[in-house]
Amino acid sequence: MLVIRNAKIYTSANRVIEKGYIVIEDGKIVDVGEDLEWDAEDVIDADGLVVTPGIVDAHSHIGGFGTDMSDQDLNEMTKNSTPEVEAVYSIDTKSNMFERAIRSGITTSAIAPGSGNVVGGLVCAVKSYGHSIEDMCIKNPIALKMALGGNPKGVYGKRNQMPMTRMGIANVMRETLIKGQEYMRKKEAAKDDKSKEPPFDLGLENVCRVLRKEIPLKVHCEQFDMLTTIRVAKEFNIDFTLDHAWGASDYYDDIVNSGCKGVIYGPIGVLLLPGECGKIDIFSLIELDKRGVLCSIMTDGPILNPDVIFVQAGEVVRFGGDIERVINMLTINPAKIIGVDDRVGSIEKGKDADLVIFKGTPALDTNAAVVYTIINGKVVYNQ
Length: 383
Description:
Low-confidence stretches: none
Distance between the termini: 21 Å
Order of helices and strands: EEEEEEHEEHEHHHEHEHEHEHHHEEE
Structural class: alpha/beta
Shape: globular
Number of strands: 16
Strand content: 25-35%
């Protein structure tokens, strides 16, 4: 048993405890509150410190990209649509990127294929600590990755292949989904007669998961490309998230009315390029949050240091965001968006004991620092 005592606790469950206790046993949170009775040999006295749930990064590529982008095992750029591939097979669990994540308090990451293809493949959710991918992966798949804009254009346009334009990107998106619809109709029409079923197609099987709303589309898109995503999602009646979402402040009504599963914003600190990367407006999360959109903040690792996630959260606070709601954008909101909130994202009885202990309040204090990172009840980092 491990007990954390005397901490200020942001539970991300509609409760802030000014001086509280967290009791952990067998990797789970067994109690949280004030003046708890406990008997434990392992005690962390967190007097003057702040505890939050482990940080959940809803959009990352750690373990599958090199920091200099020379090694891109998460970009299968041999054709513009590869729904058959899965990110889980490209993750190097021994990558030092996971150590960097742990030191920054990131305990769970949604690891996605890159954005070289319009349809990139399946996304998985992975803990930052473990001995193998079987230990670390907590849900697979969580989404099907798609990408709009300059990335797929830059890959295939140079080859004089589709997509060279945004028209081409929309066509590849729709064509993939239409093929999935046709495949699903043929399978349903065959009923129990295997001889009438279409040939098995792993990629289309994954597309059908989206069409049946088992998983959402996870769409790399910015500025007016978000409108294309919304339009296509409405046409096919599918769930989706808007990832990166630079320029969201121009489209509040469209995003709010779209019913998207969430906005995963960031990262800031990128090059300001014309078109899709020309408007960094992280303050848009405040308005979207007020209007009921589930909002979170990403690292897009490993290109930037993972602790940039707190710099971005601090920017939301600087623009007027409430600190408790901003911490939710790092914890329970991304956990809900990627479908792992039954296990992580808040400090509640029965959930995985993934916690971060800070000196200072993250996103509020510019000098806040991680003192402890705890995953599955185990201290995996101690400053």
